[in-house]
Automatic annotation (TrEMBL), chains A, B:
It comes from Brevibacillus centrosporus. Keywords: DNA-binding, Transcription, Transcription regulation. The lineage of its organism: Bacteria, Bacillati, Bacillota, Bacilli, Bacillales. SUPFAM superfamilies: lambda repressor-like DNA-binding domains (SSF47413), Periplasmic binding protein-like I (SSF53822). This is Transcriptional regulator, LacI family. It comes from the Bacteria. InterPro entries: HTH_LacI (IPR000843), LacI/GalR-like_sensor (IPR046335), Lambda_DNA-bd_dom_sf (IPR010982), Peripla_BP_I (IPR028082).
DNA sequence: CTGAAAGCGCTTACAG
DNA sequence: CTGAAAGCGCTTACAG
């Protein structure tokens, strides 16, 4: 590949001058600049971003560490992030961790080695080693869709998962439901815990007792929802409603109910969480809790951008409000 | 951030020695190495990948340029790519182009500036400027889910879209359908054209004439499918089947049919293309053409890796076979 | 307006 | 086994 030296040599001038032409420096003769630009084109020269980055101590790169880009939840967040960040000249590097702790650690090391300017992260589970890595990072970080861990002065952008779960439960209880089951995500997950707590606390707040037989935890897929629904239904004949901790689980539950011929919402009410696109499909029309996913991504991007530009900026965390989206899977009893 | 100089100074030794410890060079005393490693840990030192890249002329970075990471089609491809590439030590940088020609060009420039080692790309529409950019790139490229353009000696990994479309049509015609509509994607798209050709050619091959009123082109979303189905149905009372150029369009069509109370497959048969997850949902069970998406991503990754490692490697293009997945949206007439 | 020199943070022959 | 020096491709004071 051609370097700045090649184009300088070609014209018998110094690299400083070529550099000036490249960077639109005012101290350069129009004619010289024109000649340089021509040679650049002819030699197919492109400035080397590594060399530039080394000098400027800036790479214009932001890392986005998320559990699974194929999860529609995160791909929309990612789009929000990317949209605002490319607008201001950054390239975003995705780190797909598949919720694998080793991959999370690997991505953080890589981010540091590669001198990324900032990081937007959704770690799945925060153990001590990961926390230490964050503390040693020396790169601005914002947490996305989860709160920042204790002992780390990083802002976060999140939705109030606990409140969202409470809203779902209040809706069900408000409709007269008393026997409400819960299909949850794996316990070690941060937000699985919050949504579960919302379920339990709201039950208690209304003098209801969560029935351990009507609670299942441990998955996040449609297949899991199907299985969980079948298990719960068989053990709880008096159940009239289900709160699923995410939409995929809810859809799995709906599938099982449809296959069994149990009509929704006549015999069973279902509420999900996330408001994925698929939830609004004609056959599903799931009542669920919406999070402004794209907005969350955009906000995180804006914060990291500002943190990088203003070293003294004390970023505030942002809580987005969840919203109940009423569709056709609930009825009054 | 600490540099190699800092750790050298700390121990009163030269940077060369520190570098040797870092790179597991054999010519170094065990004791010295141990001391260096300790200081590295204490100073929280991480080698600077930019500096390394500058010297080695390698960044261990691969660009993946795709139209839309939130499109489940591409997110699965992306996962396949990432899986094999991270395994061999690369970081993959996504370029979400949203089918915007400017973004495609921007990403290619960026890739060159950043000295990416290789590129896997799915450009949406290949105009002259883009082609020229590819020709000037000087970076190994493999095309994914579309063929490489003429005038560029780059391999591709693709599925035979034309054949897939023919398979869908043969299935329908084999079931006795004669009046078959087509819901297509925007005409400028590369594969939209191929799938459309498959529709037209198969009709002709069976002595059938495609009816312009039963053909619609121009979208790729569920909303579009809904609208297209309504338009086609209103103008073609004798229609018994629809071939939709992708699953989202097919699902939109199914939605409209469901809303109108037109039973599928009793009154209307529908075939899609892509075999998205959502196509197998209990309420949809769409008959469609499957492409081995993840495998395609993996294969592209393997090819680019080998192209980078072996300069003389003459990569062969790979065609994956499409497959008809029969579910519940077609019947014999 | 232009060039020579130093430096960004590292690696790698070369000499000892 | 260790260090001094050159160099990767650029930018940026500084001098002229």
């Amino acid at each position: 590949m051609a370097t700045i030296k090649d184009v300088a040599k070609e014209l018998g001038i110094s690299v400083s001058t070529v550099s000036r032409a490249l960077n639109n420096h005012p101290d350069i003769k129009e004619q010289t600049k024109k000649e340089i630009l021509e040679v650049i084109k002819r030699l197919n020269y492109t400035p080397n971003a590594l060399a530039r980055g080394l000098i400027h101590k800036k790479t214009n790169t932001i890392g986005l560490m998320i559990p699974d880009i194929a999860d529609p939840f995160f791909s929309e967040i990612a789009n929000g992030v990317e949209e605002v960040l490319t607008e201001v000249g950054y390239q975003v590097v995705y780190g797909n961790t598949m919720r694998n702790p080793d991959k999370e650690k690997l991505f953080l090391s890589s981010a540091k080695e590669r001198q990324m300017d900032g990081l937007i992260v959704t770690p799945n589970f925060m153990d001590e080693k990961l926390l230490e890595q964050f503390q040693r990072l020396q790169i601005p970080v914002v947490f996305l869709r989860r709160r920042s861990p204790e002992g780390l002065a990083a802002p976060f952008v999140d939705v109030d998962h606990y409140k969202g779960a409470c809203m779902a439960m209040e809706h069900l209880i408000g409709l007269g439901h008393r026997h409400i089951g819960f299909i949850g995500m794996p316990e070690l997950s941060f937000l699985a815990e919050l949504r579960y707590q919302g379920y339990v606390d709201t039950m208690h707040a209304h003098g209801l007792t969560p029935n351990p037989n009507a609670i299942t935890r441990g998955g996040r897929t449609i297949a899991h929802g199907r299985e969980a629904m079948s298990r719960i239904c068989e053990q709880n004949k008096d159940l009239t409603a289900i709160f699923a901790a995410n939409d995929l689980l809810a859809i799995g539950a709906l599938e099982w109910l449809a296959i069994q011929g149990i009509p929704v919402p006549e015999k069973m009410s279902v509420v999900g969480f996330d408001n994925l696109e698929v939830a609004s499909l004609h056959w599903i029309k799931l009542t669920t809790i919406a999070q402004p996913r794209k907005q969350m991504g955009e906000e995180a991007a804006r914060i990291i951008d500002r943190m990088i530009r203003e070293e003294t900026y004390q970023a505030q965390s942002v809580f987005f409000e969840p919203e109940l989206i009423q569709r056709n899977t609930c009825r009054e009893v």
